[in-house]
């Protein structure tokens, strides 16, 4: 019997890659260090009767072609028919509500019209960006034809859209939003995805491109969130014959002068393999599991230079009722921050190894759509908080975690004043906690910052930018590769494609 392809990591990308390889007829063994699958997309119980949907909660980037290829709907995956209604709260005004292509609230007619034009512009860009993000990145040393096809696609947008795209690309997202909208709350809310998981504020160059990449790939959300995706991916992988082992931490990837020889587990067990797919982050793959001493000087240097400065904290709340703002609006999704300046002020402290005392919150209440996540009449709230640095001055002591919790709850309470009285249970995770629980280098939830020099064929490095690595038989299949982090399944699918292409 031929040796299996060993897939390290049972997160959503590892499961995706394993399932696609098995579907193509390959024998696959997936090894997950934790006792459950999912990684950042794993659900868990944090208070009696309350279930989380994963650390990351946005599933709009999950690729529809992967859902179809792996028959995830057959395995219970359900997509929402409509986008979530995103509330943009205020301490002294009515809330603004985003609902796909529509916007409601105390806005000028000019801003409402501009929002529709903004959405139309994004819709016209989507075919170009989706093609770019759903295929292997161009090879800077190879044929110019893939680059030419992308350029032709951009040119076909027409002179007006092409010029606007070229203008926006290098911009900071704050300048772009202020170009578009006079209402600061609206601009700040729309700008938020450009900053998620990053070491940047709204005035950081290139953040407009981050927002374009996010908006142009967004699709339907998954009911039940990332945890529901993990369950469907596991069922699909098993149906194609993937062998899955949890509680199987890899201690070492074994190599010799000919390339991959296999892996050694923490308990000493050795598994022989000529092909290994790693869905863990690149620094962990190369520096921890292989070791810098077994890499070339260039590769060791380039991997070590990847910026992985975690800035994300996570809070789960168990509430004895719905989450409502001060005007009585029920919250299903909410983004805080009254202005672009608020976003910048929240970012500033992490440059000095401090946490923000007024963090920016991305709030979801998945129990609105999936009542199984909380007891009847209760709700589970998922909060991603920006900005809290992994390298906090003084370290993540109990006192620091308490300050983090207070800052997040107080900020949420400034918009939802009843929330403190509703809390019956909570879980607070600092970047350090995320690092220890999920084996994330520096607690970075995207496996590396999204920056112009860490995207496309430069993600994670030029040598490894097409999933194959200088070590024969070693492939990257995680968020540290193109097209980047978040819950999308795309890096796993493209990594699997690279393995199959290599034979």
Instruction: State the end-to-end CA separation.
Output: 17 Å
Please tally the helical runs, counting DSSP H or I stretches of 4 or more residues.
16
| Average pLDDT for all residues | 95
Specify the helix fraction band.
25-40%
Number of strands: 18
Strands ordered across the widest β-sheet: 7-6-5-14-15-16-13-17
Oligomer: single chain
Question: Which descriptors would you attach to this protein?
Answer:
eight-stranded mixed sheet, alpha/beta, five-stranded parallel sheet, 16 helices, 503 residues, 18 strands
Give a verbal description of the structure.
This protein has 503 residues and is α/β, with parallel strands linked by helices. 35% of the residues lie in helices and 16% in strands. The chain has an 8-stranded mixed β-sheet with strand order 7-6-5-14-15-16-13-17, sandwiched between helices. A 5-stranded parallel β-sheet has the order 8-2-1-12-18, covered by helices on one side. Strand 9 and strand 10 form a beta hairpin. Helix 1 (12-23) runs parallel beside helix 9 and helix 3 (109-133) crosses helix 8. The mean pLDDT is 95.
């Amino acid at each position: 019997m031929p040796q299996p392809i060993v897939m390290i990591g049972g997160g959503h990308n590892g499961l995706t890659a394993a399932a696609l390889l098995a579907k193509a007829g390959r024998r696959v063994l997936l090894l997950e260090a934790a006792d459950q699958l999912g990684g950042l997309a794993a659900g868990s119980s944090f208070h009696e009767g309350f279930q989380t949907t994963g650390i990351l909660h946005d599933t709009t980037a999950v690729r529809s072609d992967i859902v179809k290829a792996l028959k995830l709907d057959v395995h219970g995956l359900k997509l929402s028919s409509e986008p979530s209604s995103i509330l943009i709260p205020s301490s002294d005004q009515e809330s603004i509500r985003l609902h796909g292509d529509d916007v409601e609230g105390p806005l000028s007619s000019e801003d409402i019209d501009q929002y529709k034009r903004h959405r139309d512009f994004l819709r016209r860009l989507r075919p170009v960006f989706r093609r770019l993000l759903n295929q292997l990145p161009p090879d800077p040393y190879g044929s110019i034809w893939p680059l030419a096809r992308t350029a032709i696609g951009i040119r076909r947008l027409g002179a007006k859209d092409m010029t606007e795209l070229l203008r926006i690309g290098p911009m900071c997202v704050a300048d772009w939003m202020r170009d578009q909208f006079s209402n600061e709350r609206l601009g700040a809310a729309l700008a938020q995805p450009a900053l998620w998981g990053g070491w940047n504020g709204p005035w950081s160059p290139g953040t407009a491109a981050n927002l374009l990449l996010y908006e142009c790939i967004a699709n339907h959300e998954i009911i039940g969130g990332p945890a529901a995706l993990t369950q469907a991916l596991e069922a699909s992988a098993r149906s194609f014959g993937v062998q899955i082992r949890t509680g199987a931490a890899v201690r070492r990837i074994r190599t010799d002068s000919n390339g991959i020889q296999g892996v050694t587990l923490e308990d000493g067990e050795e598994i022989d393999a000529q092909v290994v797919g790693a869905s863990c982050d690149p620094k962990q793959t190369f520096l921890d599991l292989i070791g810098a001493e077994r890499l070339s000087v260039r590769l060791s240097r380039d991997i070590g230079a990847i910026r992985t400065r975690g800035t994300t904290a996570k809070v789960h709340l168990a509430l004895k009722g719905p989450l409502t703002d001060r005007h009585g609006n029920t919250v299903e999704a909410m983004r805080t921050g009254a202005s672009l300046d608020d976003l910048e002020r929240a970012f500033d402290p992490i440059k000095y190894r401090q946490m923000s005392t007024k963090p920016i919150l991305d709030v979801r209440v998945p129990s609105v759509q999936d009542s199984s996540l909380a007891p009847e009449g209760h709700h589970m709230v998922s909060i991603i908080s920006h900005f809290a640095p992994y390298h906090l001055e003084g370290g993540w002591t109990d006192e620091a975690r308490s300050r983090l919790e207070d800052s997040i709850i107080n900020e949420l309470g400034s918009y939802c004043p009843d929330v403190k009285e509703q809390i019956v249970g909570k879980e607070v995770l600092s970047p350090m906690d995320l690092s220890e629980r999920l084996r994330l280098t520096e607690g970075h939830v995207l496996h590396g910052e999204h920056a112009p020099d860490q995207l496309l064929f430069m993600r994670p490095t030029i040598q490894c930018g097409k999933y194959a690595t200088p070590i024969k038989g070693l492939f990257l299949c995680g968020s540290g590769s193109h097209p980047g982090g978040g819950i999308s399944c795309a890096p796993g699918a493209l990594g699997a494609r690279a393995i199959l292409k290599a034979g």
